[in-house]
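Posting this for the archive.
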Amino acid sequence: RNNEKKQLNLHRHLRSTGLSELASDTLSETLPVLDGTYTEEPEIERLMEMRTLIDRLNIRVNLLGHHISNTVPITGALPDDKTAILREFDKAIAEFPEEELKSYRSRIWHL
């Protein structure tokens, strides 16, 4: 019952921010986060998810992802820079082993 209430609150929050359509398919997948059984995904999977998101965006938007916590820092404007940004993700996914990406993130003490 408690998880249902948390899930409903999360759904209300997402709807209020306009993200409900984007997150509706994964809302049921948030239960592990809510009940404490969540396991972090591999770094390569994070890169693949971010690549997929950017690839599917069909709006004009500035991406400012040049932050120390990003293993692939990106900055650009969609749709103009989409091809170059996707190429950077493809390169990182192909060239960097999981262990190296994980090691990088583990050295960032404030995450």
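The radius of gyration is 16 Å. Helices lie at 2-17, 20-23, 31-35, 43-56, 82-95, 98-106.
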